[in-house]
TrEMBL record:
This is Metal-binding membrane protein. The keyword Signal does not apply. The chain crosses the membrane at residues 97-115, 177-199, 211-233, 239-261, 273-295. InterPro entries: Zinc_ribbon_dom. Residues 3-22 form the Zinc-ribbon domain. It comes from Clostridium carboxidivorans P7. The keyword Membrane applies. Keywords: Membrane, Transmembrane, Transmembrane helix.
Amino acid sequence: MGYCHQCGSKVEDGSVFCTNCGVKLIEDLQEEEIQSNENQNFVPKDTFFNSQKEAYSSYTSFKNQVNFLSLRNILIKMLFKPVSGGKEFVENGEKSSVIGLTIFLAIVQGILGVWKVNQIISTIQNIALDLVQKISGIMNLIQPGSSRNVPSANDIMGLTTEINKVKSLINIPYGKIFLQNGMLFLGVIIVLFIVIYLGTNIVSKDKRDPFTIYKTVLIISVPTLYFEVLSILLSYMSIYVGAGIFLIGLIVSLASLSIIIREELFIDENHSVFIIAVSFLAAFIVILMCLQKFLSSNISDIIMSATNVMKNIRY
Protein backbone atom coordinates (compact mmCIF):
# COMPACT_ATOMS: atom_id res chain seq x y z
CA MET A 1 0.00 0.00 0.00
CA GLY A 2 1.32 3.44 -1.03
CA TYR A 3 0.24 7.07 -0.98
CA CYS A 4 -0.35 9.55 -3.75
CA HIS A 5 2.20 12.33 -3.79
CA GLN A 6 -0.41 14.76 -5.10
CA CYS A 7 -3.40 14.35 -2.75
CA GLY A 8 -2.11 11.92 -0.12
CA SER A 9 -4.76 9.29 -0.75
CA LYS A 10 -3.97 5.61 -0.31
CA VAL A 11 -3.33 3.68 -3.51
CA GLU A 12 -2.97 -0.04 -4.16
CA ASP A 13 0.45 -1.52 -4.98
CA GLY A 14 1.00 -1.61 -8.73
CA SER A 15 -1.50 1.21 -9.45
CA VAL A 16 -0.48 3.49 -12.30
CA PHE A 17 -2.89 6.35 -11.49
CA CYS A 18 -4.38 7.72 -8.26
CA THR A 19 -8.07 6.78 -7.93
CA ASN A 20 -8.77 10.08 -6.17
CA CYS A 21 -7.01 12.79 -8.26
CA GLY A 22 -5.89 10.80 -11.31
CA VAL A 23 -2.19 11.75 -11.13
CA LYS A 24 0.33 9.29 -12.65
CA LEU A 25 2.07 7.23 -9.94
CA ILE A 26 4.48 4.99 -11.89
CA GLU A 27 7.52 7.22 -11.31
CA ASP A 28 6.85 7.41 -7.59
CA LEU A 29 6.45 3.68 -7.35
CA GLN A 30 9.74 3.15 -9.18
CA GLU A 31 11.51 5.50 -6.78
CA GLU A 32 9.97 3.71 -3.82
CA GLU A 33 11.09 0.35 -5.24
CA ILE A 34 14.63 1.60 -5.71
CA GLN A 35 14.67 3.04 -2.20
CA SER A 36 13.30 -0.23 -0.84
CA ASN A 37 16.06 -2.17 -2.60
CA GLU A 38 18.70 0.13 -1.13
CA ASN A 39 17.22 -0.28 2.36
CA GLN A 40 17.38 -4.06 1.95
CA ASN A 41 21.10 -3.84 1.16
CA PHE A 42 20.75 -4.85 -2.47
CA VAL A 43 23.92 -4.42 -4.52
CA PRO A 44 23.46 -1.58 -7.05
CA LYS A 45 23.64 -2.53 -10.70
CA ASP A 46 26.67 -0.35 -11.33
CA THR A 47 28.80 -1.95 -8.58
CA PHE A 48 30.68 -4.07 -11.13
CA PHE A 49 31.35 -1.05 -13.30
CA ASN A 50 32.59 0.90 -10.28
CA SER A 51 35.01 -1.93 -9.44
CA GLN A 52 36.28 -1.81 -13.03
CA LYS A 53 36.78 1.93 -12.75
CA GLU A 54 38.70 1.47 -9.48
CA ALA A 55 40.93 -1.21 -11.04
CA TYR A 56 41.65 0.98 -14.05
CA SER A 57 42.31 3.92 -11.74
CA SER A 58 44.81 1.82 -9.76
CA TYR A 59 46.55 0.74 -12.98
CA THR A 60 46.68 4.34 -14.20
CA SER A 61 48.10 5.46 -10.86
CA PHE A 62 50.80 2.77 -11.01
CA LYS A 63 51.58 3.65 -14.61
CA ASN A 64 51.94 7.31 -13.70
CA GLN A 65 54.16 6.48 -10.72
CA VAL A 66 56.46 4.20 -12.73
CA ASN A 67 57.76 6.21 -15.65
CA PHE A 68 58.25 3.52 -18.30
CA LEU A 69 59.75 6.03 -20.72
CA SER A 70 62.37 6.88 -18.12
CA LEU A 71 63.14 3.17 -17.62
CA ARG A 72 63.58 2.72 -21.36
CA ASN A 73 65.98 5.67 -21.50
CA ILE A 74 67.95 4.27 -18.58
CA LEU A 75 68.30 0.86 -20.25
CA ILE A 76 69.40 2.44 -23.54
CA LYS A 77 72.01 4.61 -21.82
CA MET A 78 73.37 1.64 -19.90
CA LEU A 79 73.77 -0.24 -23.17
CA PHE A 80 76.06 2.34 -24.76
CA LYS A 81 77.33 4.38 -21.78
CA PRO A 82 77.37 2.17 -18.66
CA VAL A 83 79.42 4.58 -16.53
CA SER A 84 77.75 7.90 -17.36
CA GLY A 85 74.32 6.25 -17.51
CA GLY A 86 74.89 4.62 -14.14
CA LYS A 87 76.04 7.87 -12.56
CA GLU A 88 72.99 9.68 -13.91
CA PHE A 89 70.68 7.02 -12.48
CA VAL A 90 72.37 7.17 -9.07
CA GLU A 91 72.06 10.95 -9.01
CA ASN A 92 68.54 11.38 -10.40
CA GLY A 93 66.79 8.02 -10.12
CA GLU A 94 63.44 8.28 -8.34
CA LYS A 95 61.89 5.70 -6.06
CA SER A 96 59.29 4.66 -8.64
CA SER A 97 61.96 4.15 -11.30
CA VAL A 98 64.06 2.05 -8.91
CA ILE A 99 61.09 -0.17 -8.04
CA GLY A 100 60.16 -0.56 -11.69
CA LEU A 101 63.73 -1.41 -12.71
CA THR A 102 64.04 -3.95 -9.89
CA ILE A 103 60.86 -5.75 -10.96
CA PHE A 104 61.85 -5.63 -14.63
CA LEU A 105 65.34 -7.07 -14.03
CA ALA A 106 63.99 -9.84 -11.77
CA ILE A 107 61.47 -10.88 -14.45
CA VAL A 108 64.10 -10.82 -17.19
CA GLN A 109 66.45 -12.94 -15.08
CA GLY A 110 63.66 -15.45 -14.57
CA ILE A 111 63.10 -15.64 -18.33
CA LEU A 112 66.83 -16.02 -18.97
CA GLY A 113 66.95 -18.86 -16.46
CA VAL A 114 64.27 -20.77 -18.37
CA TRP A 115 66.07 -20.03 -21.64
CA LYS A 116 69.38 -21.36 -20.29
CA VAL A 117 67.75 -24.56 -19.06
CA ASN A 118 66.28 -25.18 -22.52
CA GLN A 119 69.68 -24.53 -24.05
CA ILE A 120 71.38 -26.97 -21.65
CA ILE A 121 68.85 -29.69 -22.44
CA SER A 122 69.32 -29.19 -26.18
CA THR A 123 73.11 -29.25 -25.76
CA ILE A 124 72.98 -32.53 -23.81
CA GLN A 125 70.77 -34.02 -26.53
CA ASN A 126 73.19 -32.98 -29.27
CA ILE A 127 76.17 -34.30 -27.31
CA ALA A 128 74.43 -37.64 -26.82
CA LEU A 129 73.67 -37.98 -30.53
CA ASP A 130 77.21 -36.99 -31.47
CA LEU A 131 78.56 -39.53 -28.98
CA VAL A 132 76.49 -42.30 -30.60
CA GLN A 133 77.94 -41.45 -34.00
CA LYS A 134 81.52 -41.35 -32.67
CA ILE A 135 81.18 -44.67 -30.87
CA SER A 136 79.80 -46.26 -34.03
CA GLY A 137 82.71 -44.84 -36.02
CA ILE A 138 85.23 -46.19 -33.52
CA MET A 139 83.61 -49.62 -33.62
CA ASN A 140 83.89 -49.57 -37.40
CA LEU A 141 87.62 -48.83 -37.14
CA ILE A 142 88.18 -51.61 -34.61
CA GLN A 143 86.13 -54.11 -36.56
CA PRO A 144 86.37 -53.36 -40.32
CA GLY A 145 83.40 -54.30 -42.40
CA SER A 146 80.88 -53.34 -39.73
CA SER A 147 79.89 -50.15 -41.54
CA ARG A 148 76.41 -51.53 -41.87
CA ASN A 149 76.09 -51.10 -38.10
CA VAL A 150 76.95 -47.42 -38.29
CA PRO A 151 73.76 -45.36 -37.87
CA SER A 152 72.71 -43.56 -41.03
CA ALA A 153 71.36 -40.03 -41.23
CA ASN A 154 67.83 -41.44 -41.21
CA ASP A 155 68.61 -43.46 -38.09
CA ILE A 156 69.94 -40.36 -36.33
CA MET A 157 66.86 -38.41 -37.41
CA GLY A 158 64.59 -41.12 -36.07
CA LEU A 159 66.48 -41.24 -32.80
CA THR A 160 66.20 -37.46 -32.50
CA THR A 161 62.45 -37.67 -33.07
CA GLU A 162 62.05 -40.31 -30.37
CA ILE A 163 64.14 -38.28 -27.92
CA ASN A 164 61.99 -35.21 -28.61
CA LYS A 165 58.84 -37.24 -27.97
CA VAL A 166 60.15 -38.44 -24.62
CA LYS A 167 61.40 -34.96 -23.77
CA SER A 168 57.94 -33.48 -24.44
CA LEU A 169 56.44 -35.93 -21.92
CA ILE A 170 58.93 -35.06 -19.18
CA ASN A 171 57.67 -32.38 -16.84
CA ILE A 172 60.38 -29.71 -16.59
CA PRO A 173 59.50 -27.24 -13.78
CA TYR A 174 59.80 -24.05 -15.83
CA GLY A 175 57.64 -22.03 -13.43
CA LYS A 176 59.81 -23.07 -10.52
CA ILE A 177 62.96 -22.26 -12.48
CA PHE A 178 61.59 -18.83 -13.37
CA LEU A 179 60.85 -18.00 -9.73
CA GLN A 180 64.19 -19.37 -8.55
CA ASN A 181 66.17 -17.21 -10.97
CA GLY A 182 64.18 -14.11 -10.08
CA MET A 183 64.72 -14.77 -6.37
CA LEU A 184 68.42 -15.46 -6.99
CA PHE A 185 68.81 -12.09 -8.71
CA LEU A 186 67.10 -10.27 -5.84
CA GLY A 187 69.21 -12.19 -3.32
CA VAL A 188 72.45 -11.19 -5.06
CA ILE A 189 71.34 -7.55 -5.17
CA ILE A 190 70.56 -7.62 -1.45
CA VAL A 191 73.93 -9.22 -0.59
CA LEU A 192 75.83 -6.66 -2.68
CA PHE A 193 73.84 -3.85 -1.09
CA ILE A 194 74.54 -5.04 2.47
CA VAL A 195 78.28 -5.54 1.92
CA ILE A 196 78.77 -2.25 0.07
CA TYR A 197 76.63 -0.34 2.60
CA LEU A 198 78.60 -1.72 5.54
CA GLY A 199 81.93 -1.24 3.76
CA THR A 200 81.32 2.36 2.74
CA ASN A 201 80.09 3.30 6.20
CA ILE A 202 83.07 1.61 7.87
CA VAL A 203 85.77 3.27 5.77
CA SER A 204 84.05 6.65 5.68
CA LYS A 205 83.22 8.95 8.55
CA ASP A 206 80.07 10.21 6.86
CA LYS A 207 77.09 7.89 6.65
CA ARG A 208 76.03 7.02 3.12
CA ASP A 209 72.42 7.12 1.98
CA PRO A 210 71.09 3.51 1.74
CA PHE A 211 68.87 4.41 -1.21
CA THR A 212 71.84 5.78 -3.17
CA ILE A 213 73.83 2.61 -2.50
CA TYR A 214 70.92 0.43 -3.60
CA LYS A 215 70.62 2.41 -6.84
CA THR A 216 74.35 1.90 -7.39
CA VAL A 217 74.10 -1.86 -6.90
CA LEU A 218 70.98 -2.15 -9.05
CA ILE A 219 72.22 -0.17 -12.03
CA ILE A 220 75.55 -1.99 -12.37
CA SER A 221 73.64 -5.24 -12.89
CA VAL A 222 72.28 -3.94 -16.21
CA PRO A 223 75.52 -4.37 -18.24
CA THR A 224 75.80 -7.93 -16.93
CA LEU A 225 72.26 -8.55 -18.15
CA TYR A 226 73.10 -7.37 -21.68
CA PHE A 227 76.22 -9.51 -21.89
CA GLU A 228 74.34 -12.47 -20.42
CA VAL A 229 71.77 -12.31 -23.22
CA LEU A 230 74.56 -12.05 -25.79
CA SER A 231 76.44 -14.95 -24.20
CA ILE A 232 73.38 -17.21 -24.41
CA LEU A 233 72.96 -16.39 -28.11
CA LEU A 234 76.63 -17.01 -28.89
CA SER A 235 76.63 -20.22 -26.85
CA TYR A 236 74.65 -21.88 -29.64
CA MET A 237 77.79 -21.52 -31.76
CA SER A 238 80.39 -22.12 -29.05
CA ILE A 239 80.06 -22.60 -25.29
CA TYR A 240 83.52 -21.12 -24.76
CA VAL A 241 82.64 -17.94 -26.68
CA GLY A 242 79.46 -17.57 -24.63
CA ALA A 243 81.36 -17.99 -21.36
CA GLY A 244 83.95 -15.43 -22.50
CA ILE A 245 81.26 -12.88 -23.35
CA PHE A 246 79.69 -13.35 -19.92
CA LEU A 247 83.04 -12.77 -18.22
CA ILE A 248 83.45 -9.55 -20.22
CA GLY A 249 80.07 -8.44 -18.89
CA LEU A 250 81.20 -9.05 -15.31
CA ILE A 251 84.38 -7.04 -15.93
CA VAL A 252 82.37 -4.13 -17.36
CA SER A 253 80.07 -4.20 -14.33
CA LEU A 254 83.04 -4.31 -11.93
CA ALA A 255 84.73 -1.38 -13.65
CA SER A 256 81.50 0.64 -13.69
CA LEU A 257 80.86 -0.10 -10.02
CA SER A 258 84.39 0.95 -9.10
CA ILE A 259 84.04 4.31 -10.87
CA ILE A 260 80.57 5.00 -9.47
CA ILE A 261 81.64 4.18 -5.90
CA ARG A 262 84.61 6.53 -6.18
CA GLU A 263 82.77 9.43 -7.80
CA GLU A 264 79.27 9.14 -6.32
CA LEU A 265 79.95 7.66 -2.89
CA PHE A 266 83.32 9.45 -2.48
CA ILE A 267 85.34 6.38 -1.52
CA ASP A 268 89.04 6.31 -2.38
CA GLU A 269 90.43 3.81 -4.87
CA ASN A 270 92.07 1.44 -2.39
CA HIS A 271 88.98 1.10 -0.23
CA SER A 272 86.65 0.84 -3.23
CA VAL A 273 88.67 -2.05 -4.67
CA PHE A 274 88.54 -3.87 -1.34
CA ILE A 275 84.80 -3.28 -0.95
CA ILE A 276 84.05 -4.48 -4.48
CA ALA A 277 86.19 -7.60 -4.05
CA VAL A 278 84.47 -8.58 -0.79
CA SER A 279 80.99 -7.83 -2.13
CA PHE A 280 81.43 -9.90 -5.28
CA LEU A 281 83.00 -12.74 -3.29
CA ALA A 282 79.97 -12.76 -0.99
CA ALA A 283 77.62 -12.66 -4.00
CA PHE A 284 79.51 -15.54 -5.64
CA ILE A 285 79.18 -17.68 -2.50
CA VAL A 286 75.44 -16.96 -2.33
CA ILE A 287 75.05 -17.88 -6.02
CA LEU A 288 76.87 -21.20 -5.53
CA MET A 289 74.79 -22.09 -2.47
CA CYS A 290 71.50 -21.23 -4.18
CA LEU A 291 72.41 -22.99 -7.43
CA GLN A 292 73.38 -26.13 -5.54
CA LYS A 293 70.03 -26.15 -3.76
CA PHE A 294 67.99 -25.24 -6.84
CA LEU A 295 69.77 -27.72 -9.12
CA SER A 296 69.32 -30.63 -6.73
CA SER A 297 65.64 -29.83 -6.37
CA ASN A 298 65.02 -29.38 -10.11
CA ILE A 299 67.05 -32.42 -11.14
CA SER A 300 65.14 -34.51 -8.61
CA ASP A 301 61.83 -33.34 -10.11
CA ILE A 302 63.01 -34.03 -13.67
CA ILE A 303 64.32 -37.51 -12.79
CA MET A 304 61.07 -38.38 -11.05
CA SER A 305 59.08 -37.17 -14.06
CA ALA A 306 61.33 -39.09 -16.48
CA THR A 307 60.98 -42.25 -14.37
CA ASN A 308 57.20 -42.00 -14.49
CA VAL A 309 57.32 -41.48 -18.27
CA MET A 310 59.54 -44.54 -18.79
CA LYS A 311 57.20 -46.65 -16.62
CA ASN A 312 54.21 -45.56 -18.68
CA ILE A 313 56.05 -46.26 -21.94
CA ARG A 314 57.06 -49.70 -20.68
CA TYR A 315 53.51 -50.61 -19.83
